[in-house]
Each structure stands twice: as C-alpha cells, then as structure tokens.
Write a structure and sequence with these properties.
Blueprint lengths: L4 E2 L10 H9 L11 H14 L3 E5 L2 H12 L5 E5 L3 H4 L4 H6 L2 E5 L8 H7 L10 E7 L12 H13 L4 E5 L2 H8 L3 H6 L3 E5 L10 E5 L1 H13 L8 H14 L3 H15 L16 E5 L7 H11 L1 E2 L1 E2 L4 E5 L6 H16 L2
C-alpha cells in the first residue's frame, strides 16, 4: 500500500537514526542544578549564533513565548501582537492565564506592522488604561503562509519601540526558514530584537525543544518562571542533543523545502478550483485558496485524504501545504500528480 504524503505541517518529521545516536551519546547532568553539559553548551552555541547574552532551553515554543511575556510584563499590562499571530490564535489564551495580561491585536500586511498602527495601539499614560509593555512579531508568519518579516522593517520597528521604551519580542519558531529564504544572518535577527523564541521541532526536525534568547537579566527571570510553568527538566541533554544535531545537520536542507514549495505552487496554480498567490510562497508553505470556488476547503481536504494526501486547514477557506525534511522530490511529484487528478475529475 502506498504511504500517505503528509503535507500538514513541518512538525510531523521523525528523528533520523543519526539524531537518535547523537541523543544517546550526549553527556548528561541535572539541568535543575545547571549541571547538564550538553544543554549548557547548546545554550551558549545559540547565544553565539544570534548574538544574545543568555539562552534557556524549554520544551515548547508556546512556553518560550509565554516566558518572554511573563518576564517582560506585570499583571494588568497589555501586549501588542499581530491579529493573526500564533501568540494570539494558538496559545490557548495563555497570556491572560499565565501572566494576567491582555493582548491588543493590530492588523498588518502579511505579518509586517505599519509603525503608525503600532503608535496608535500604544496606550496613553492615564491610570485607567492598561500599560503597554511589550510588542511581539512573528517570522516567518504561520497563518499568512510562511511569509517573511524583512530585516529592515524589524530594525525600523525595533528603533521605534526603543523610542517608546518598549521591548520587542520575536516569535521565531521558523526563524531558520526566514534566515535561509532572506539570506539575513541569524545574528542580524538577534541584533534587531530584545528577545527571540527559536524552535527546533519544526523545519529542523528535532522531536522536541525551543529556546528563549535575551539578556542575562531577562533569562534569569524566565528561568524562575520556567520552573513555575512546570518546564524544569533533569537530564534534558538528550533533547538538547537532538536540537543541536538538527541545527548542525538539517539547517542547510531548508533550502530544499523552499524549492519544493515553489514547485508545488508553480505546478498547481493552473487548477481552477482554487487559487495560489505565488508571491506569498516565500518559504516552505503553500496556501490553496478556495474563496472564489463553490468547493469548500474542508471538502477538498477530505477528497485529498481519500487519494493519499494529508493536508491541513489554513486561515479562512484555505488549505495549507507544508514541505519538510521527510518529503522527497518523488513525494512532491506524486503529490502534484494526485492533486491534479483529484480536481480534474470534479
């Protein structure tokens, strides 16, 4: 039986045998005591890559983002986020539960803020308003289909935020894709923000793990809150070793994912039942938009599943195809053929 082609997400990848070997060989210690040598070395390595003072390895990207919010804010504050951001849509209202802050959503152009809109969102100083204490951005942007936040725009926003005494946090779950797609160095991204969350279990293919990077003062606060959030771990070097291997060995492969996404978009755009905005295909995602079709994305999803393609729902009436480490060129070619066959018969 032919296996399913899984285009749902870049989180579905399996650890390679080489990654498992690196995990088993990792020197270990108790990270609660700060004595896990693999985790300590990996945190220092990521600090060097991004030009940050300190890092904190955590289980998930949600925890990393929420630790940043917790460390940057006080109860009753307000955080400015993009309306379609992961923090607002997919983190289960965690800012209100974990940090007692509220989110102020601002619209953008494919994830990129206009400075006038940010300025309008900052609260006046009167006591009856919440205090604006943090601005968050996302790169690449998930719900817009992996679009990039250009480094010049991030720098401009960072300068603006500093003029308002506001820190800027970057949800960089897919910053590796942004780095490869834009040729912007990781250090440039680090220099342009005050804190950044990076993830190892998406395009890089590690089974688990994220890291919060920032100043020593920020990470000291986050370290305490990681314990409060239940994220303290013991011999966690096995997981850090997987992430370390992923950065060293899989980061160069992201360009192949991007090329396969471009191939998908180019060879599927002629299908009448949906449209593809090829300008949005900037990294490893392709959105199939059924807004102008009589067919719903949900119906199309079920048709493709029966034909051997697993694909996820996107924002609105769209399907989202994501290329990743576990897909080959043959898988992409076969997916294109199956999708054309499915919609040609309707």
């Amino acid at each position: 039986m032919t296996s399913m082609i899984d285009l749902r997400s870049d989180t579905v990848t399996q650890p390679t045998e080489q990654m498992k070997a690196a995990m088993c060989a990792a020197p270990l210690g108790d990270d609660i005591y700060g004595e896990d040598p693999t985790t300590n070395a990996f945190q220092e390595e990521m600090c060097d890559l991004f030009g940050m003072e300190a890092g904190l390895f955590v289980p998930t990207g949600v925890m990393s983002n929420q630790l940043a919010i917790k460390a940057w804010t006080a109860p009753g504050d307000e955080v400015i986020v993009e309306r379609e951001s992961h923090i607002f849509n997919y983190e289960t209202a965690a800012p209100s539960m974990m940090s007692a802050v509220q989110l102020h959503t601002v619209e953008s152009e494919l994830g990129v803020f206009r400075l006038d809109d940010i300025e309008a969102a900052i609260r006046p100083p009167e006591y009856y308003y919440p205090r604006t204490s943090l601005v968050c951005i996302e790169n690449t942007h998930n719900r817009f289909g992996g679009t990039l936040y250009p480094i010049d725009c991030i720098r401009e926003l960072h300068q603006f935020c500093h003029g308002k005494s506001l820190p800027l946090h970057l949800d960089g779950a897919r910053i590796w894709n942004a780095h490869v797609a834009s040729t912007t160095s990781l250090r440039e991204f680090g220099d342009a923000v005050d804190s950044i969350s990076i993830c190892f279990s998406k395009g890089l293919g590690a089974p688990v793990g994220s890291m919060l990077l920032g100043s020593r003062e920020l990470i000291t606060k986050a370290h305490k809150y990681r314990k409060v959030f239940g994220g303290g771990m013991r011999q966690v070097g096995m997981l850090a070793a997987a992430a370390q291997y992923a950065v060293a060995q899989h980061l160069p492969l992201l360009a192949e994912d991007h090329a396969r996404a471009q191939q998908l978009a180019s060879e599927l755009k002629s299908i009448e039942q949906f449209s593809i905005d090829t300008e949005r295909v900037q990294s490893n995602m392709v959105l199939l938009d059924f807004a102008a079709s009589e067919m719903t994305a949900q119906h199309a999803q079920s048709i493709l599943a029966e034909a051997g393609i697993s694909i996820g729902m996107g924002m609105g009436n769209t399907l989202r195809a994501v290329t990743h480490l576990d897909l080959s060129d043959d898988d992409i070619t076969r997916a294109i053929d199956i999708i054309h066959t499915c919609f040609r018969s309707l």
